[in-house]
TrEMBL record:
All copies of domain Alpha-N-acetylglucosaminidase tim-barrel, residue ranges: 131-466
Alphabetical list of Pfam families matching this protein: NAGLU, NAGLU_C, NAGLU_N
Family indicated by similarity: Belongs to the glycosyl hydrolase 89 family.
Keyword Hydrolase appears in the UniProt entry: yes
Protein keywords: Glycoprotein, Glycosidase, Hydrolase, Signal
UniProt superkingdom: Eukaryota
GO MF entry, a single one: alpha-N-acetylglucosaminidase activity
Name the UniProt record assigns to this protein: Alpha-N-acetylglucosaminidase
Length: 754
């Protein structure tokens, strides 16, 4: 066995030891039984017997479940080596034997009676140690305003999908506040340092400070309370929560208290100036580094306990002060040493995004300096974007350090049908078979959730498969049938069309970041190219409309119909934008007014109405979560403004404009549509007056609209009745399909002339 292989084996042993047991067998079994009651109700739950026995995994040491029983008068028996394994086994039974479906947008849980028999005792072991979940950014793009009820739902979803390793980063600012006060900072200095709630992810990674803050005292109290409940529930299933650790970033005010400290100011991040970025990094050799790091971890673990795995990211999207291997090794070692000073069993979970994001800086020597500075097996690397740009391939499997093959998939919480399902399907197996592979798990690391559920259903299933799904077409057909609770030819055909189009992105250019003209500040230079045939999306839309009379009672179907309609409108906006641009460049006023009028005054208002028919697509739902998290009206307005900034300007001057774009009723009507009206009117005025279009001036005018939206306190449109039950396609959608794309749906008897 080669050196790398030996190191890999050692890493596996150390990680297995670090994982340990987060709770005894009885507690974990009880947690799964309670989940079952929440999921199905006490009556149906009584038909299941759940138990946990570590001995089930004695041979492999990997999470294992066993299913048996069922039938008339017999209980279904679910046995797991951990609570998570038992929950995953339960999910397998509900999915494969009962045809049920568990999802963010609504679960389909109609159980057949009697419960199906497991014909032969079914035992399944996961091929790897870990199934990981979350990105640091998910905490801000999706979780920021959650209460315990929503967290409870998510942890149940995690357990059912076999997740056994996940971030638990709530409440850390309260601990940092204690640490900073103990170090001599004033409360004012601390308040000036923390970002607002919607931007904490980037404060935690050292990218930002101050922006959209300060944090109210009530925020700290509620987050500590939440963190205790989150940790208690995760541990009750046998999950391993990943706590935060000190990465080296400190407030500027620390230089007042310790003027001799060796602190370096970093460069700008994300088009922010140094008022909000240019963070301060404590030098690894400074005596203060272990003091700050150990003080934080000691206070954190005193408050929340520990499961010995900690996350820290020193150079996330920030170039280190030096490329010298000695510096990079020292900076890495300092973080790790501060961990083990408090917890000798500490394992460091590192997001490998830095190696992917700046490959020109992170050459083999620099990567090796970081990976070699921590004992093998004590650094667990997330290959964060492996479905598109795997790093393990060019780093010899992270030079012997264990890694988790992760699917990032989504950026900014964007809406937009997208996936690279073929790559996702085959990627984990390829990584596992890579020469001297040190892969120890699979992971889902989206920046935002609540979208493209088919992608996450596949990825979660792959965490328990030893190889790829043999036939993705058949798999997605089964997915549709389970999701809607019934097999329907048109709906299943629609999903196969989506599989071969929007969910079939391939290559390094694949990114789940929506850059459609619909959600971008308009210009004459926007790119509308896509990797798929747009007619497939429109045909899938037609098929779902055809299926609607049969499937309208399914909440998941109604959600999908709205989502595919949204995507179809997005395609139409691109088409009409091209018409607008062509007409303007050809100086054709009438075609410009016609195409621009359809886009801004018909398509977008119609889209807003469709989105308003599903509570998952309401701006009001997102803003109400923020307001409910507050304890006063002043706080509620502050939180709402945080939310509005994140979805739009992402900074005081549109610093990361529209990065976190979403297509929500209210956002379309009050943010995107006014920009498009302004753009169309500006182009018309340019032709009428014979004055060239000035993008710079338009951007200034658009910024005024964008800022007005952010500062608004206007209440948004309420939820309306589910659109799919009425089958009334808005006229603006039925009659604005371009002739070349028009489906044969009977409502589309007309089309706009080209």
């Amino acid at each position: 066995m080669g050196t790398v292989a030996v190191a890999a084996a050692l890493g596996f042993l150390l990680l297995t030891a670090a994982g340990g047991s987060a709770g005894d067998e009885a507690r974990e079994a009880a947690a799964v039984r309670e989940l079952l009651v929440r999921l199905l109700g006490p009556g149906p739950a009584a038909a299941f017997s759940v138990s946990v026995e570590r001995a089930l995994a004695a041979e492999s040491g990997l999470d294992t479940y066993r299913l048996s029983g069922g039938g008339v008068g017999a209980r279904v028996r679910v046995l797991g080596s951990t609570g998570v394994a038992a929950a995953a086994g339960l999910h397998r039974y509900l999915r494969d034997f009962c045809g049920c479906h568990v999802a963010w947008s609504g679960s389909q849980l109609r159980l057949p009676q009697p419960l199906p028999v497991v014909p032969e005792e079914l035992t399944e072991a996961t091929p790897n140690r870990y199934r990981y979940y979350q990105n640091v950014c998910t905490q801000s793009y999706s979780f920021v305003w959650w209460d315990w009820a929503r967290w409870e739902q998510e942890i149940d979803w995690m357990a059912l999908n076999g997740i056994n390793l996940a971030l638990a980063w709530s409440g850390q600012e309260a601990i940092w506040q204690q640490v900073y006060l103990a170090l001599g900072l004033t409360q004012t200095e601390i308040d000036e340092y923390f970002t607002g709630p919607a931007f904490l992810a980037w404060g935690r990674m050292g990218n930002l400070h101050t922006w959209s803050g300060p944090l109210p005292p009530s925020w700290h109290l509620k987050q500590v309370y939440l963190q205790h409940r989150i940790l208690d529930r995760m541990r009750s299933f046998g999950m391993i929560p990943v706590l935060p650790a000190f990465a080296g970033h400190v407030p500027k005010a620390l230089t007042r208290v310790f003027p001799q400290a060796n602190i370096t100011q970093m460069g700008r991040w994300g088009h922010f100036n140094c008022s909000y970025s240019c963070s301060f990094l404590l030098a690894p050799e400074d005596p203060l580094f272990p003091v700050v790091g150990s003080l934080f971890l000691r206070e954190l673990t005193k408050e929340f306990g520990t499961d010995h795995i900690y996350g820290a990211d020193t150079f996330n999207e920030m170039q280190p002060p030096s490329s010298e291997p000695s510096y990079l090794a020292a900076a890495t070692a300092a973080v790790y040493q501060a961990m083990i000073a408090v917890d000798p069993d500490a394992v460091w979970l590192l997001q490998g995004w830095l190696f992917q994001h700046q490959p020109e800086f992170w050459g083999p020597t620099q990567v090796g300096a970081v990976l070699g500075a921590v004992p093998r097996g004590r650094l667990l690397v997330l290959d964060l974007f492996a479905e598109s740009q795997p790093v393990y391939v060019r780093t010899a499997s992270f030079q012997g350090q264990p890694f988790i093959w992760c699917m990032l998939h989504n950026f900014g919480g964007n809406h937009g049908l997208f996936g690279a399902l073929e790559s996702v399907n085959r990627g984990p197996t390829a990584a596992r078979l890579f020469p001297n592979s040190t892969m120890v798990g699979t992971g889902m690391t989206p920046e935002g959730i609540g979208q493209n559920e088919v992608v996450y259903a596949l990825m979660a299933e792959l965490g328990w498969r030893k190889g790829p799904v043999a036939d993705l077409g058949a798999w997605v057909t089964g997915f549709a049938a389970r999701r809607y609770g019934v097999s329907h030819g048109d709906a299943e055909a629609a999903w196969r069309l989506l599989l071969r189009s929007v969910y079939n992105c391939s290559g390094e250019g694949c990114s789940g970041h929506n850059r459609s003209p619909l959600v971008r500040r308009p210009s004459l230079e926007m790119v509308t190219d896509v990797w798929y045939n747009r007619s497939d999306v429109l045909e899938a839309w037609r098929m779902l409309l055809t299926a609607a009379p049969t499937l309208a009672s399914s909440p998941a179907f109604c959600y999908d119909l709205v989502d595919v309609t949204r995507q179809a409108v997005q395609e139409l906006v691109s088409w009409y934008y091209e018409e607008v641009r062509t007409a303007y460049l050809n100086k054709e006023l009438v075609p410009l007014m016609r195409a621009g009028g359809v886009l801004a005054y018909e398509l977008l208002p119609a889209l807003d109405k469709v989105l308003a028919s599903d509570s998952h697509f309401l701006l009001g739902s997102w803003l109400e979560q923020a307001r409910v998290a507050a304890v006063s009206e002043t706080e509620a307005r502050f939180y709402e403004q945080n939310s509005r900034y994140q979805l739009t300007l992402w900074g005081p001057e549109g610093n990361i404009l529209d990065y976190a774009n979403r297509q929500l009723a209210g956002l379309v009507a009050d943010y995107y549509a006014p920009r498009w009206r302004l753009f169309t009117e500006t182009l018309v005025e340019s032709l009428v007056q014979g004055i060239p279009f000035q993008q710079h001036q338009f951007d200034k005018n658009a910024f005024q609209l964008e800022q007005t939206f952010v500062l608004s306190t206007k209440s948004t449109a309420p939820w309306t009745a589910p659109w799919c039950s009425s089958l009334a396609v808005p006229p603006a959608l039925a009659y604005t399909w371009p002739c070349a794309w028009r489906p044969t749906h009977p409502r589309a008897s007309k089309c706009t002339p080209r």
